[in-house]
Design goal:
The complex is a heterotrimer of chains A (329), B (322) and C (336).
Chain A (H helix, E strand, L loop, with lengths): L34 H35 L2 H5 L15 H32 L3 H16 L2 H12 L21 H26 L2 H9 L4 H12 L1 H17 L2 H6 L14 H4 L5 H8 L8 H28 L6
Chain B lengths: L28 H8 L36 E13 L2 E13 L2 E5 L6 H8 L9 E9 L2 E2 L5 H7 E4 L10 H10 L8 H14 L3 H4 L12 H14 L4 E5 L7 H14 L4 E5 L3 H7 L2 E6 L2 E7 H6 L4 H7 L5
Parallel strand pairs in B: 3-8, 3-9, 6-7, 7-8
Antiparallel strand pairs in B: 1-2, 1-4, 4-5, 9-10
Chain C lengths: L4 E2 L2 E2 L1 H44 L10 H9 L15 H32 L2 H14 L4 H19 L3 H7 L10 H26 L2 H9 L4 H12 L1 H16 L3 H6 L14 H4 L5 H7 L7 H32 L8
Antiparallel strand pairs in C: 1-2
Classes of the chains: A mainly alpha (329), B alpha/beta (322), C mainly alpha (336).
C-alpha cells in the first residue's frame, strides 16, 4: 500500500507566495476488493443460497407429502384403535385437542399476562419486586417446556389437586388432563403476552396518560378505558404468538395430556377439562417411528394440518400488527 | 490570513486573512472574535461587496481574500447533470465546476436539489434505489462512472449534516478509512502520524490529544463533526463535499469548523451546501444558487451576493423567499 | 374532607384509595406469579437433591452404562432405605453439551452470513420471498422437524453413511442405525437458524444509515462496510440471538429424542468419522423418554435432578448473555 500523500498545511511563516498544485493521484480502474473481502462475499452468497435451498426443501417437501396423504375424511374422522393404523381412522380428535388446549392456555395467559404487564409498566413499586418479577418471567421464558411439564406433573399429582384430573382407586392422582396441560401451556404463552403488552403500553406517550389524569380520571380508569384499548393490537399480537407456541409444543402434551387417542372426558362436572386426549403434536409423535403407531402417512397428514394452523396464526400476527397500529404523533 | 488588531483604530479591527493553525496553545483568530469580543464592531473590508443587509458591522466576520493567492485548478466538473427520483426531477441539466483552492457554496431553498447534486458527485446518490442520473461527472478529466466507486469515494470525501462518528474510539474513527481499504492492514505505528495530522488539520487535536481511545460518541456535537472532518481528511481526498455540516451545531463549533474549512481549501476542493446565507458569505469563494433543480446563477461570491445577475437570486438573497 | 362524587368523577381521597387498591391487587397478582415461579425452581431443586447427595460429585462423572443405572433406579425396592440412586450422568451431560454447542456455533456463523446476504447482497426478488419464509420457519413446531428427520434424514444416513464395516467396528459398544448426533446437530441447526436470522436481520437493518452511508462515503467497499460497521454494531443482538438459540437447543427434547438416538451413550471422538454417526441422548430427551417412571420415587428424583441441571444452565446462559451484551455496548451510548 503506498502511503497516502499528505499536503503540509499552510503556516504563518509561508504566506502562500508560491502555491503548489496539489499532488494528483493516479486513477485506479481495477477493483478495491481484497481477497479476504471476496471470500467474505462468497461465504455470504453461499450461506444465502444454502438457506434458500433448505427453506425451499422443507416447504416443498412438507407440502408434497402433506397433500399426498391428507384428505377430508382424515380431518373429520376420529381416530380408531386398530392394529393397522395406516388404514384406519383420522385425526379429528387431535385437531380438537389442539384447539381446546390452545384456547385453555391462552384464556389463562391473557388476563394474567396483561395484569402483570400493566403492573410492571404502570406501577412497578417497589422496584426490587418489579425487577424480581421481570427476572421470573425471563426464567419462565427460558425454561425448557419439558421442565415445565414435569413440574406440572409434580404439582397436579398432589392429592389436593385431585379435582383437576382423574383419581384412581388407590388414591393416586393421575395428574394428567386438559386443564393441567392447559395451565402449564399458559406458562409457555405468558412471557409473550407480557412482553407484547409491555411494549404496547410503553409506546403510548406520556401525554396521553397526563391528559386523562387532567380530566380527573384515576389511574385505574385510565388504564382500563384509555391505555388498554390502545394496546389491544399489541396484546393480540402477543396472544397470537403465544397460541402459536402452544399449538406447536409437544413435551407438555406428551407428559400432561394422558395420551389417549380420543378425547375422553371424565365423569362429573367439568368432565371435558378433566379428561384426557391428544393433540396434533402428540399424534404426529406417536405415529412416527419414534412412537407406537408407525403410520407415517397419517403423521405427514397431521403435520401438514398442524403446519397450516401455525401458518395461519403467524399470518394473523402480521395482519393484526399492520392494521391496528395506533398512530401517536 | 492573520487577524491584526489595529491599536490606532477606534472603529474596530481590520480583518485580513490567514488560515491559522487550529492547534497549538494560542486561540485561533476567528474563535477569539466570536468568544471574546462579542460586542466589538468589526470593520468590513471594502474588497468584498455586500448588499445593504450585510453592512451591519455586527453581522459577522467577512474574510478578505486579496491578501493571499491560492492555486486554483479544476478538479471536478459536471456536464448537463440531471437526477430524477422516480419521475420527479431533482436536478435539471446542471453544469458546474469544482476547483481546488476555493470553496464553492451551493445555496438555495429547501428541496431545490442542492443535496442531491452534492451526493451525486461521490455517487452516493446511487444508494437511493429510485434515483436515475443522466449527464456526465468528471474527476480530473475522467468520467466518474469509469472507475471503481469506492476509489472515487476515497478521493471525494463527504461530511454529513448530522455528525456520524462510528461507535469506536477516536483513533479508530480517524484510522477507519485507512484501515478498511486494500488488503494489507496498516499497523498502528504507521497510522499514528496520519491520524495526528488529520486531527490537527481538523482543529481537534488539542482537545483530544490526551486520550485517543476515548469513545467517539462521548464527544460533543461540534467535536464529533470535527472528528468526521479528520476522518475524511485521513484518506487524503482531493475534493471534500460538505452537506450543511454546521446546521446542527452551536455558533462556537460552527465558527471553528468554518475556519477549518477555509484553512483546508488550498489543499482540497471544497463544496459546501448551506441554508445559511451568512455562512456562505463567510466561507465561500464561489457561490452557486439553485432553485427547484435548476442552476440559476453561479459566480464569485462577491458578485453573487453583491450584484446578483438573476432576479430570483436577488429575491432569495434579499430574503424574499426561502 | 368528604369523599364526594362530582359528576361521577371521584374526588381526590377516594380516587387515591381506589388507585391504591388496584395497585395492591395487581401487585399481589404479580407477586403470586413470582412466588409460583420461584416455587417451581425451588421445588425442582429440592426434589432433585437426593440424587445429588447420594452420588456426590461423581454424579457428573462417567462410569458404567447410564441406561443400566437408570433401570436399576427404576427397579429400586419399595423400602425408602433401599432406594437405589447410583448414577453417572456424564454421557448425558456430554451429549447435551456436544449437541447444543455444535449446533449453536454452526448456527451463529451461518446466521450472520445469511443475514448479511439478506440485508445487503440479495436481489430484491429473492429477498421478498426469503424473508417471510424464514420467519415462518421460525414458528414451525419442533415435532415436524423431528418427523422429517426421522423419516428422511435418518434412513438416508443409515443407507449411505453407515456401512457394515462401520457397524462392525463399534458393534461391541453400540448399534448404529442412523439416529446419530450428526442428524441431531444438523436438524437442530436448521431449527434454530431461522429465529437467529430474523433477529440479526432486524439488528442489521436497525443500524443507523448515518453510519453505513458514512462508511460508504469514506470509500470502503460494501462487504467491508457491512462487516466493520453494521455487524459490529449488531454484536449485542448477535449475542442475544445466540443465547435465545442456545436456550431452545438446550431444552429441545422431542426432536432430539426422535433423531439423535434413544441411548445414553457418549460418542467417542477417537472413532473418527464414526463419532458423528453414533447415537446420543441429551438431558431433555432423557426426561421425555423416561417420563412414565416419574412415580417411582428415586427415579423421579433423578429426573428432577436432570431438570435442575437444565434450569441452572438456562440461567447461566441468560446471565452470560446479559453480561456480554453490556460489555459490547461500551462504545454505544444511548444516542438513539
Amino acid at each position: 500500500m503506498t502511503p497516502p500523500s499528505v499536503n503540509p498545511p499552510l503556516s504563518a511563516e509561508e504566506p502562500a507566495e508560491n502555491p503548489q498544485p496539489p499532488k494528483r493521484r493516479p486513477v485506479k480502474v481495477e477493483s478495491s476488493w481484497s481477497i479476504m473481502d471476496r471470500i467474505g462475499l462468497g461465504l455470504a452468497w453461499a450461506a444465502g443460497v444454502t438457506l434458500c435451498v433448505i427453506a425451499g426443501a422443507i416447504v416443498i417437501y412438507m407440502a408434497y407429502k402433506g397433500l399426498q396423504y391428507v384428505n377430508w375424511e382424515m380431518i373429520t374422522t376420529a381416530p380408531e384403535a386398530s392394529l393397522d393404523q395406516s388404514a384406519s381412522g383420522g385425526f379429528l380428535d387431535p385437531i380438537l385437542g389442539t384447539l381446546l388446549l390452545t384456547v385453555i392456555g391462552i384464556l389463562i395467559a391473557i388476563p394474567v399476562g396483561v395484569a402483570v404487564a400493566v403492573w410492571l409498566t404502570e406501577y412497578g413499586r417497589p422496584s426490587g419486586l418489579a425487577r424480581a418479577v421481570e427476572s421470573g418471567v425471563e426464567i419462565v421464558a427460558g425454561t425448557p417446556s419439558i421442565v415445565l411439564a414435569i413440574f406440572g406433573l409434580l404439582i397436579f399429582q398432589q392429592s389436593f389437586m385431585g379435582l383437576f384430573s382423574f383419581t384412581a382407586e388407590g388414591g393416586a392422582v393421575f395428574g394428567r388432563s386438559f386443564i393441567t396441560a392447559g395451565v402449564m401451556m399458559s406458562l409457555v404463552a405468558l412471557p409473550m403476552v407480557i412482553g407484547a403488552t409491555r411494549e404496547a403500553l410503553n409506546t403510548i406517550p406520556r401525554h396521553v396518560r397526563e391528559a386523562s389524569y387532567a380530566l380527573g380520571k384515576d389511574k385505574a380508569t385510565t388504564i382500563r378505558r384509555v391505555l388498554l384499548p390502545s394496546a389491544r393490537s399489541g396484546i393480540a399480537t402477543g396472544a397470537t404468538l403465544g397460541m402459536g407456541r402452544i399449538a406447536g409444543d409437544t413435551a407438555i402434551v406428551v407428559i400432561l395430556l394422558g395420551a389417549s387417542m380420543t378425547i375422553t372426558p371424565e365423569e362429573g362436572p367439568g368432565g371435558l377439562l378433566r379428561g384426557t386426549g391428544s393433540t396434533l403434536t402428540s399424534y404426529v409423535y406417536n405415529n412416527s417411528p419414534a412412537g407406537e403407531g408407525n403410520a407415517p402417512e397419517k403423521a405427514y397428514a397431521a403435520a401438514f394440518v398442524l403446519l397450516l394452523i401455525v401458518i395461519v396464526l403467524n399470518a394473523l400476527v402480521g395482519l393484526i400488527g399492520r392494521r391496528n397500529k395506533p398512530q401517536w404523533n | 490570513m492573520e487577524l491584526k488588531q489595529d491599536p490606532q483604530s477606534t472603529n474596530g479591527n481590520r480583518v485580513t486573512g490567514e488560515p491559522g493553525k487550529a492547534g497549538g496553545a494560542t486561540v485561533p483568530p476567528l474563535r477569539r472574535i466570536v468568544i471574546e469580543s462579542e460586542t466589538a464592531p468589526i470593520h468590513v473590508s471594502d474588497a468584498v461587496l455586500t448588499p445593504d443587509a450585510f453592512q451591519d458591522p455586527n453581522a459577522g466576520v467577512l474574510i478578505d481574500q486579496e491578501a493571499e493567492s491560492v492555486w486554483v485548478e479544476q478538479r471536478m466538473r459536471t456536464e448537463a447533470l440531471s437526477i430524477a427520483y422516480g419521475g420527479k426531477v431533482a436536478v435539471n441539466e446542471v453544469s458546474l465546476e469544482v476547483n481546488s483552492g476555493e470553496v464553492l457554496a451551493l445555496i438555495g431553498p429547501s428541496g431545490c436539489g442542492k443535496t442531491t447534486l452534492l451526493r451525486s458527485l461521490n455517487r452516493l446518490v446511487e444508494l437511493t434505489p429510485a434515483a436515475k442520473r443522466t449527464g456526465r461527472i468528471m474527476l480530473d478529466g475522467e468520467s466518474v462512472d469509469d472507475f471503481d466507486v469506492t476509489h472515487l469515494r476515497s478521493r471525494v470525501g463527504m461530511l454529513f449534516q448530522q455528525p456520524n462518528p462510528f461507535p469506536m474510539s477516536i483513533f479508530d474513527n480517524v484510522a477507519y478509512g485507512l484501515r478498511e481499504r486494500g488488503s494489507k492492514r496498516p499497523r498502528k505505528k504507521e497510522l499514528e502520524p496520519i491520524v495526528v495530522d488529520a486531527l490537527e488539520r481538523a482543529g481537534l487535536w488539542d482537545e483530544v490529544s490526551n486520550n485517543l481511545s476515548h469513545p467517539a460518541l462521548a464527544l460533543s456535537g461540534g467535536q464529533q463533526q470535527r472528528l468526521c472532518i479528520a476522518r475524511s481528511l485521513a484518506v487524503s481526498p482531493e475534493v471534500l463535499l460538505l452537506d450543511e455540516p454546521c446546521s446542527a451545531l452551536d455558533p462556537i463549533s460552527t465558527a471553528i469548523i468554518e475556519e477549518t474549512i477555509v484553512g483546508l481549501r488550498s489543499e482540497v476542493a471544497i463544496v459546501i451546501v448551506t441554508h445559511n446565507l451568512q455562512q456562505a458569505s463567510r466561507v465561500a469563494d464561489r457561490v452557486a444558487f439553485m432553485y427547484l433543480g435548476d442552476m440559476v446563477e453561479c459566480g464569485a461570491a462577491g458578485q453573487v451576493f453583491g450584484a446578483p445577475a438573476a432576479e430570483r437570486t436577488k429575491e432569495y438573497i434579499g430574503g424574499g423567499f426561502g | 374532607m368528604e369523599a364526594a362524587s362530582l359528576n361521577g368523577v371521584k374526588v381526590s381521597k377516594e380516587r387515591d384509595r381506589t388507585d391504591r387498591r388496584v395497585e395492591l391487587l395487581l401487585g399481589a397478582l404479580a407477586s403470586t406469579i413470582l412466588l409460583l415461579i420461584a416455587g417451581m425452581v425451588i421445588f425442582v431443586f429440592l426434589k432433585g437433591l437426593p440424587s445429588f447427595t447420594h452420588n456426590g460429585l461423581a454424579w457428573f462423572g462417567s462410569g458404567g452404562n447410564v441406561d443400566d443405572q437408570l433401570m436399576n433406579i427404576f427397579n429400586s425396592p419399595a423400602n425408602p432405605d433401599d432406594y437405589v440412586y447410583e448414577l453417572r450422568a456424564w454421557p448425558l451431560l456430554y451429549a447435551t453439551a456436544l449437541i447444543t454447542l455444535s449446533a449453536v456455533i454452526l448456527s451463529t456463523i451461518f446466521s450472520v452470513l445469511s443475514a448479511i446476504f439478506i440485508v445487503e447482497f440479495a436481489p430484491l426478488s429473492i429477498r421478498r420471498v426469503l424473508e417471510p419464509v424464514v420467519r415462518l420457519l421460525a414458528a414451525v413446531p419442533s415435532v415436524i422437524y423431528g418427523l422429517i428427520g426421522i423419516l428422511v434424514i435418518v434412513p438416508w444416513v443409515h443407507h449411505h453413511l453407515i456401512s457394515e464395516d462401520r457397524k462392525a467396528s463399534v458393534a461391541y459398544v453400540i448399534q448404529l442405525d442412523g439416529t446419530s448426533i450428526l442428524v441431531g446437530i444438523l436438524i437442530l441447526f436448521v431449527m434454530i437458524c431461522p429465529i437467529m436470522i430474523a433477529i440479526i436481520v432486524d439488528a442489521l437493518r436497525a443500524v443507523p444509515t448515518n453510519w453505513t452511508q458514512g462508511a460508504a462515503a469514506l470509500g470502503v467497499n460494501r462487504w467491508r462496510a457491512m462487516w466493520t460497521v453494521s455487524v459490529r454494531a449488531a454484536r449485542p443482538a448477535i449475542v442475544a440471538a445466540a443465547v435465545l438459540a442456545s436456550a431452545r437447543a438446550l431444552g429441545e427434547a422431542i426432536m432430539l429424542s426422535m433423531v439423535a438416538g434413544s441411548v445414553g451413550f457418549a460418542p467417542n471422538p477417537l472413532d473418527g468419522f464414526t463419532f458423528f454417526l453414533e447415537p446420543a441422548r441429551p438431558l431433555a430427551s432423557t426426561i421425555v423418554d423416561n417420563a412414565e417412571g416419574l412415580s417411582v420415587v428415586p427415579f423421579g428424583q433423578t429426573m428432577y435432578a436432570f431438570a435442575a441441571i437444565l434450569l441452572v444452565s438456562s440461567a447461566f446462559l441468560s446471565f452470560g448473555g446479559w453480561y456480554t451484551r453490556r460489555r459490547l455496548s461500551k462504545y454505544t451510548l444511548s444516542a438513539r
